[in-house]
Specification:
Layout: H1 16-30, E1 37-38, H2 50-63, H3 79-90, E2 102-105, H4 108-115, E3 125-129, H5 133-142, E4 146-150, E5 168-172, H6 184-197, E6 200-204, E7 230-235, H7 237-240, E8 248-251, E9 257-259, E10 265-267, H8 269-279, H9 285-293, H10 297-323, E11 328-330, E12 336-340, H11 347-358, E13 360-361, E14 363-364, E15 375-379, H12 384-395
Parallel strand pairs: 1-13, 3-4, 3-5, 5-6, 6-7
Antiparallel strand pairs: 2-8, 7-8, 9-10, 11-12, 12-15, 14-15
Helix pairs in contact: 2-9, 3-9, 4-5, 10-12
Length: 399
């Protein structure tokens, strides 16, 4: 008889955001006239930049004409998009990245889950806690040994180097869920560790466009030697509102190597290229044209306007919560605010209080890991009107 993958039974019963959606559904059924405001899920509320819309319209017109329609595109992404990424996301920041080191995909969540396939099941994984659940869950599914790196307010929510040697290390800056960022000196510690221990870092910089503090690195490749030890993930979802459009990319440098079947060092770039080409047919042409438009002059202005809008929401959230005696972290270089629960109540209890007494949705920190307990995550991705209304409701609560 066929056997299920037993590692799936080691996972939490439900994916965090599915669990929240279920509770919201139950609440709505009991309260059909409820006017819920979500500060919980990191979905965007502003339309994608008009430059991207216009690019998609043009691409759609091309697809409707025999002489300009497109069939299957290159699995790694069209050259026009990869070259735009090279110029605008890297060369303009004095970072050398080649177009064939870039792999376009339909989302960073997919990339996070898929990249671990090119590593042996025996590799030891180090993951910050609290953490975006996909880092953890996909490695549990694969049956790997995971060590957790506590990110506490005492250490500014930054992970410390692992006590035991780790092969694969996940880092995220700006961080989801805590909203904190890593400086160059702090990132250098990890790059040096990885070089010394022949480890590889999976660096998630999906929220780089929200960095406002000068000097905070937008890419791990700003650190000398990082191309030898790091894979970088980036997304258009939060950068340009592509959550419903789907486009991201991953950088796998040619310098990046791991031990092969006979103990020799092998390049990972062709391994991922082989996997990507086998299991993925590429992102739609019209979507890649929209992504290319993000780097146009108008696109850049519109992206900046969008991210400024969300960061103004973040500022309002931080200031209001502080004014009513609550303690917050993050929200200065990221669209997430990490709210400490008052009076030592649990994160689920605060979630329930917000939902039942103020009709506000947040995300319990315990869903991000053991060390997320005692906090809830709020996002600034709401509309300005809903954000202000939600803050007024919180201000009227007895906390």
């Amino acid at each position: 008889m066929i056997t299920a993958n037993n590692h799936y039974f080691e996972l939490p019963a439900n994916y965090l955001f599915q669990d929240i959606a279920k509770k919201i559904k139950i609440y709505k059924e009991k309260n059909p006239n409820a006017k819920l405001i979500s500060l919980g899920i990191g979905d965007v509320t502003q339309p994608i930049p008009m430059a991207c819309v216009e690019a998609m319209h043009k691409a759609c017109d091309e697809m409707g004409k025999l002489e300009t329609m497109r069939g299957y595109g290159p699995e790694q992404g069209y050259e026009f998009l990869r070259q735009s990424i090279v110029k605008n996301d890297y060369l303009d920041r004095n970072i050398e990245v080649a177009a064939d080191e870039i792999f376009v995909s339909d989302g960073s969540k997919c990339d996070v889950g898929n990249i671990q396939e090119i590593f042996d099941v025996s590799v030891k994984v180090a993951i910050p806690d609290p953490v975006y659940p996909v880092y953890r869950d996909t490695n549990i599914m694969a049956g790997r040994k995971i060590s957790y790196l506590p990110c506490l307010k005492e250490n500014n929510f930054l992970p410390s180097l692992p006590d035991e040697e780790s092969d694969l290390i996940y880092l995220c800056s700006p961080n989801n869920p805590t909203g904190t960022v890593m400086t160059k000196d702090e990132l250098k510690i990890w790059v040096d560790y990885a070089r010394e221990h022949h480890s590889i870092i999976i660096f998630d910089s999906a929220y780089k466009e929200y960095i406002r503090t000068p000097g905070i690195p937008h890419s791990i490749y700003e650190i000398s030697g990082a191309k030898e030890v790091a894979i970088e993930l980036r997304s258009f979802s939060k950068t340009a509102g592509f959550t419903g459009v789907r486009c991201a990319y991953m950088v796998i440098p040619h310098e990046l190597k791991a031990k092969g079947p006979n103990g020799e060092m092998v390049k990972l770039n062709p391994l991922w290229s082989r996997r990507h080409s086998t299991k993925f047919n590429g992102v739609a042409y019209i979507v890649q044209r929209a992504a290319e438009a993000v780097f146009s002059e108008e696109g850049k202005k519109q992206v900046k306007s969008m991210t400024d809008y969300y960061m103004e929401n973040a500022k309002l959230i931080r200031e209001k919560l502080t004014s009513v005696g609550l303690t917050t972290y993050g929200g200065k270089d990221a669209p997430y605010i990490w709210l400490e629960t008052p009076r030592n109540i649990t994160s689920v209890d605060l979630f329930e209080k917000f939902l039942n007494e103020a009709e506000i949705v947040c995300t319990p920190g315990s869903g991000f890991g053991q060390y997320g307990e005692g906090f809830v995550r709020l996002t600034s991705f709401g509309t300005r009107e809903n954000t202000i209304e939600a803050l007024n409701r919180i201000g009227n609560l007895k906390l």
